[in-house]
Write a structure and sequence with these properties.
With 184 residues, this protein is an all-alpha fold. It folds into two domains: 34-85; 87-184. Helix content is 76%, strand content 0%. The chain contains eight helices and no strands. The protein has helices at 3-24, 30-34, 38-47, 54-63, 71-85, 88-96, 107-145, 151-180. Helix 3 (38-47) packs parallel to helix 5, helix 6 (88-96) packs parallel to helix 7 and helix 7 packs antiparallel against helix 8 (151-180). The model is unreliable at 6-24 (pLDDT under 50).
């Protein structure tokens, strides 16, 4: 393949990829813009924890279709939705799932949300450590079965496996304790 042909192929690929990325950024389709219930869209965004700046994204998505959001209706709906999102129970759920918190809760609700979020996130983080240890254990067990693994290395592997097993048992106990303290 010639260098010119390679550059053309790369340019076409880059353009196609850019168009896919740009089109993926639209928050609403043409039909959604034309039929928009801005109160409902705001309520949905609020209940999903989207920041208030999300309205700007909707404005950009709908501008090309000649539609402009009803700002007042959107924010009224978002206020209703954010009341659903910013609870300690949902904070726990979001943290437990490993979701990112964008700071969308108002100050009067944020403290409770964050208490739940931190609790859930702590459990999530510990479970991530257990998963990482499990991957290490699997790799060590594979290495242990290889014929070329020396006796000295096998001894090291067995010790590391014992250490990781003990660590995982302690981490699982910690998860059970944290899950038992869930008060939402």
């Amino acid at each position: 393949m010639s260098i010119t042909r390679l550059l053309k192929s790369l340019a076409i690929f880059s353009l196609t990829y850019s168009l896919i990325i740009i089109s993926g950024c639209a928050t609403l389709s043409k039909g959604e813009c034309l039929e928009a219930d801005w109160y409902e869209i705001g309520a949905k965004d609020g209940a999903s924890g989207k920041p208030s700046s999300r309205l700007n994204d909707h404005r950009e998505a709908c501008k090309k279709h000649g539609v402009f959001p009803d700002r007042e209706q959107y924010y009224m709906g978002r206020e209703e939705g954010i009341q659903i999102y910013c609870t300690p129970k949902n904070g726990f759920k979001q943290g437990y799932a490993g979701n990112y918190y964008s700071g969308s809760c108002p100050i009067d609700l944020e403290q409770g949300f964050l208490a739940g979020y931190r609790h859930g996130r702590e459990i999530y983080d510990i479970k991530q450590k257990i998963s990482a240890n499990d991957r290490k254990l699997k790799n060590l067990e594979k290495e242990l079965t290889k014929k070329e693994t020396s006796q000295e290395r096998r001894k090291e592997i067995r010790e590391e496996i014992r250490h990781l097993d003990k660590s995982n048992n302690n981490l699982r106990d910690e998860v059970r304790d944290l899950e038992g303290r869930q008060y939402y």
